[in-house]
Automatic annotation (TrEMBL):
It comes from Pseudomonas delhiensis. This is Acyl-CoA dehydrogenase. PANTHER family: ACYL-COA DEHYDROGENASE, ISOVALERYL-COA DEHYDROGENASE, MITOCHONDRIAL-RELATED. SUPFAM superfamilies: Acyl-CoA dehydrogenase NM domain-like. GO terms for molecular function: acyl-CoA dehydrogenase activity; flavin adenine dinucleotide binding. Gene3D superfamilies: Acyl-CoA dehydrogenase/oxidase, N-terminal domain (1.10.540.10), Butyryl-CoA Dehydrogenase, subunit A, domain 2 (2.40.110.10).
Length: 354
């Protein structure tokens, strides 16, 4: 599915991207050059057509080579989806061209918002009225990905006193908006992940994505999580491929486990695709939460099985670098927002109310 040139680049750079030894600025142009950001975007909006399911498969394909690149892809494609689902069509007309060709980085700063939606934490950016019917923003987003230095736009949910919280896009050139140095991560280091501080940032109304976060966030959450699940799908597929490569034609005691995990993965992917296609996750988010949990558990099991299949060789740095990277990548899956702990807590709350 992926362009062969991109596949080769991802394989050659995967380790460096994970460890922060590759230029973070290089990822977005490579993905854009392969036409990936337009997948699932209507042709009338400048995209390649297709559906969100096609975008899920594209992110999964990238994740099989590099979770760092897939993480950037997810951030960019999620932001594009916010524009596609926003009633502010004029904003989309202004931004989509640069997002689709990779000149502009789209950062999904809605992790805090998704936790807010589940009652886990309050919104971290506050708005007060400003001139010309706009707002002045103050606060902090401690962890945002795809903040490409110099030219990005970030989505954030913003608290307002006496009114519904809003969701807006904030351009990197805004006065009072400051980006931290890249966060020091265990992996995925070349993903342009940093913190953002807002100090009296002026937000004109034309940058509004939606004036009611409580209506908009449930609307975009299936795409947010569905595209995020794609990263785990791709990682798990690659780990299971590695298991088969190690086992070869032998009738190992591990083959039955590999086949079981492969079957469970396919069942979860089919449930994800069906739910995204039908729209049922909008009214039944718990079904999507359970799929996300199942995929994360499957990824951990697949990487553990890869270790067993490769044996002691996986612990030798000259042989096990790809496995070690997937091990680090799999450690990220349970904690990316919404984390498995947060999802399980939300499911418990829903069951208690039932």
């Amino acid at each position: 599915m992926l362009d062969p040139t991109l596949s080769r680049w991802l394989d050659a750079q995967a380790e460096a991207l994970d460890l922060g030894q590759a230029d973070p600025q290089s990822v977005l142009p490579q993905l854009a050059g392969a036409g990936l950001f337009g997948i699932g975007v209507p042709e009338a909006r400048g995209g390649a057509g297709g559906s969100l399911l096609d975008a899920v498969e594209a992110i999964a394909a990238v994740a099989g080579h590099s979770l760092t690149a897939a993480f950037v892809f997810w951030g960019q494609r999620a932001f594009i989806e916010y524009l596609l689902q926003s009633p502010n069509r004029e904003l989309g007309e202004r931004l989509l061209g640069e997002l689709l060709d990779g000149r502009l980085a789209g950062a999904t700063g809605l992790s805090n918002a998704m936790k807010f939606l589940s009652g886990i934490e309050s919104l971290q950016v506050k708005a007060s009225p400003a001139a010309d019917d706009g707002w002045s923003l103050d606060g902090r987003l401690p962890w945002v990905t795809n903040l490409r230095k110099g030219h990005f736009v970030v989505a954030a949910a913003i608290e307002r006193e006496g009114a519904a919280p809003l969701v807006a896009a904030i351009p990197s050139g805004s006065a009072g908006l400051s980006r931290s140095d890249d966060l020091r991560l265990l992996g995925l280091q070349s993903s342009n992940t940093a913190a953002l501080d807002f100090s009296a940032v002026q937000l004109p109304r034309e940058w509004l994505l939606h004036d009611d976060a409580r209506r908009y966030l449930p609307q975009v959450r299936p795409a947010f999580l569905g595209l995020q699940c794609a990263m785990t799908i791709g990682l798990t597929r690659r780990a299971l491929e590695a298991v088969r490569e190690h086992l070869g034609g032998s009738r190992s005691v591990l083959r039955e486990e590999e086949e079981r995990l492969r079957g469970e993965l396919q069942a979860l992917v089919e449930r994800l695709r069906a739910g995204l296609a039908s729209g049922e996750f909008g009214s039944e988010p718990a079904r999507l939460f359970r799929i996300r949990i199942g995929l994360a558990e499957g990824a951990a099991a697949a990487v553990q099985l890869e270790l067993q299949a490769s044996g002691g060789k996986a612990y030798l740095s000259q042989h096990g670098a790809a496995f070690a990277r997937r091990w680090r990548e799999s450690a990220f899956v349970p904690i990316v927002t919404p984390s498995l702990v947060q999802l399980r807590a939300e499911l418990q709350r829903q069951e208690a109310r039932a």
